[in-house]
Design goal:
The complex is a heterodimer of chains A (268) and B (263).
Chain A (H helix, E strand, L loop, with lengths): L4 E4 L2 H9 L10 H12 L7 E4 H5 L12 H18 L5 H17 L8 H6 L3 H22 L13 E5 L4 E5 L3 E4 L4 E6 L8 H15 L8 E6 L4 E6 L2 H26 L1
Parallel strand pairs in A: 2-4, 6-7
Antiparallel strand pairs in A: 1-8, 3-4, 5-6, 7-8
Helix pairs in contact in A: 4-5, 4-7, 5-7, 8-9
Chain B lengths: L3 E2 L5 H6 L12 H17 L8 E3 L7 H6 L2 H18 L7 H12 L1 H10 L2 H22 L9 E10 L4 E11 L10 E6 L5 H18 L5 E6 L5 E5 L2 H17 L7
Parallel strand pairs in B: 2-4, 5-6
Antiparallel strand pairs in B: 1-7, 3-4, 4-5, 6-7
Helix pairs in contact in B: 2-9, 4-5, 4-7, 5-6, 8-9
The chains are: A alpha/beta (268), B alpha/beta (263).
């Protein structure tokens, strides 16, 4: 039986989710990785496919063409600004966001940014749009810090999301992770989303849980994956149990199948 | 409800007030409010869980006359001034508030901007530019400097699912400062409007306070409405009376329109 904890997004509720009994520690071995890769290889693929929690929650429906905007840039900038602020919290959140944007602009000016990257897009924006990007990123990071500051636990900002390339299946998996909270027996993942959680929010969290475990060098599974929806004031969490991992892996394979069904329709 | 017009030099001074006199952070009232709202919604909808979803947003709190008077020009002005606020809070020095706000709006919703520009004739566009510059001047004069350490958040979205998802309340707050994690209440909510303040804004202030309380489970310290048309500001501390009246306003609106198709 899979798990799904539902709480109001308060400091006390988050602490409770962090302190729930940890499930038995799990590690994914080479055999399990091979079995999953075998499943993906059996699903037809025309070109490289990418799967993440969003695609699972939307049953493999094709994603809209991605364009950079203040809304799509806020997490990338906010996340890196949060890591910067974690190293020196005497600086204001507005300042770390500005510093992060400045660094991206310098990268673009020095020719290190590839076309289509965030730095490349930022470098072509007028000052007013950069201001809007700053405002959006500051709001994103402030909401997260407001949540984490009173927790009084150690937390880390991972350098990147978790990525896993499935061998021989032309499939890349990506798990969203904003914060990692080390515990006595392992780690808890935390990720944020805007809006209201949908009915498939639980499967989305399980997807992140299983991809993050696959990306771990030793296949160690996180104790829990907590999703927070600050706009709605809701926190959901799934435990790192074998059943949750199996469900997460099954959903990923199903999504790959659904994507394969969508693709020919697009080609037609 | 005691409403105070601003006597302090700036909006920010009025909102932050005297730090020593702030009450302890209230983390207990929210659950009671939720129960009270659920009781009220049960009286309206019963246990009909399969009915269509009713969505409530700030525009539902407008008087009928206000809604009728909202022209395309007035709506565009409101949006542009809200972008000016966001840029000012982010610390952007504005060369031309109208052009800068328009560039920011275009970057997020180009088709809407094109539609507005197509709807308004040349005279209306000139009037819009003049209006936005005048409102921005008032905003800059009355807002005052916002310390980045107060963690200012702009265009903060709130969405609350009530009565098992039968009712969805949406809100966008122009400016929020302060933190819910402090021992003394410090969160202040500001609603910026380009129209003159009236009963609509009084209800909206209560709605903002109520939804913020439901979202964070923490009662904010103060709520304010600032008119860039007149430079007038109303502000008051959020107390039980404010929240109770906010609940009553919400239920009253729902009683008057019990069914609506999901958006």
């Amino acid at each position: 039986m899979t798990t799904l904890h539902h709480r109001r997004l308060t400091t006390a509720a988050l602490l409770e989710l962090l302190n729930l009994d940890a499930p038995s520690p799990l590690e994914l071995d080479a055999e399990q990785r091979d079995a999953l890769a075998q499943r993906f290889r059996s699903v037809a693929v025309l070109d490289r496919r990418r799967l993440d929690a969003w695609s699972v929650e939307h049953a493999g429906a094709p994603q809209r063409h991605f364009v950079w905007s203040a809304a799509t840039a806020r997490r990338s900038i906010g996340h890196r600004a949060l890591a910067r602020w974690r190293r020196d919290s005497s600086t204001s959140l507005t300042q770390v966001v500005r510093d992060e944007i400045d660094e991206l602009l310098v990268r673009a000016a020095s020719g290190y940014a590839r076309g289509g990257s965030l730095a490349h897009w930022l470098a072509r924006q007028p000052r007013a749009v950069l201001g809007l990007v700053t405002a959006d990123a500051v709001t994103w990071v402030s909401e997260l810090v407001d949540l984490l500051d009173p927790l009084d636990v150690e937390w880390e900002v991972p350098d990147t999301d978790a990525y896993y390339d499935v061998a021989g299946a032309q499939t890349s998996l990506r798990a969203r992770r904003d914060i990692v909270i080390p515990t006595a027996t392992g780690r808890v993942l935390l990720r944020t989303r805007g809006g209201l959680p949908g009915r498939s929010a639980g499967p989305g969290l399980r997807t992140d849980l299983v991809i993050e475990a696959l990306s771990h060098p030793h296949g160690v599974v996180a104790e829990r994956c907590i999703g927070v929806w600050p706009d709605a004031g809701i926190a959901l969490a799934v435990d790192g149990t074998l059943e949750d991992l199996r469900a997460g892996a099954r959903d990923l394979v199903r999504t790959a199948v659904a994507q394969a069904r969508h693709r020919p329709r697009i080609a037609a | 409800m005691p409403l105070a017009t601003v006597n302090e030099p700036t909006v920010v001074d009025a909102l932050r007030g005297d730090r020593v006199s702030r009450p302890p952070t209230d983390r207990w009232t929210a659950s009671g409010l939720r129960a009270q709202i659920d009781d009220g919604l049960f009286a309206i909808f019963g246990d009909d869980a399969d009915g269509s979803v009713v969505t409530i947003s700030p525009k539902d709190f407008r008087d009928h006359q206000d809604a009728v008077a909202s022209s395309e020009l007035a709506l565009a002005r409101g949006v542009l001034v809200s972008y000016v606020l966001r840029l000012v809070v982010a610390g952007v020095g504005l060369d031309d508030p109208y052009e800068d706000a328009l560039a920011a709006w275009r970057s997020t919703d180009p088709s809407r901007v094109d539609a507005v520009c197509a709807t308004l004739d040349r005279d209306d566009l000139a009037r819009l530019a003049t209006d936005v510059r005048a409102h921005s001047a008032t905003l800059l004069k009355t807002l005052g400097p916002i310390n980045p350490l107060w963690r200012p958040r702009t265009a903060l979205r709130v969405v609350q699912r009530l009565h098992g998802g039968r009712v969805i309340c949406r809100d966008v707050v122009d400016l929020v400062v302060g933190s819910v994690g402090t021992e003394r209440a410090s969160v202040a909510i500001v609603d910026v409007t380009t129209s003159a303040l009236g009963p609509t804004h009084e209800r909206l202030m209560r709605y903002h306070a109520l939804l913020h309380t439901l979202r964070t489970s923490v009662v904010p310290l103060r709520v304010a409405a600032l008119s860039t048309a007149t430079g007038e500001m109303w502000h008051h501390d959020v107390d039980n009376d404010t929240l109770q009246r906010g609940v009553a306003d919400l239920l009253e609106i729902l009683r008057s329109r019990p069914s609506q198709e999901a958006a």
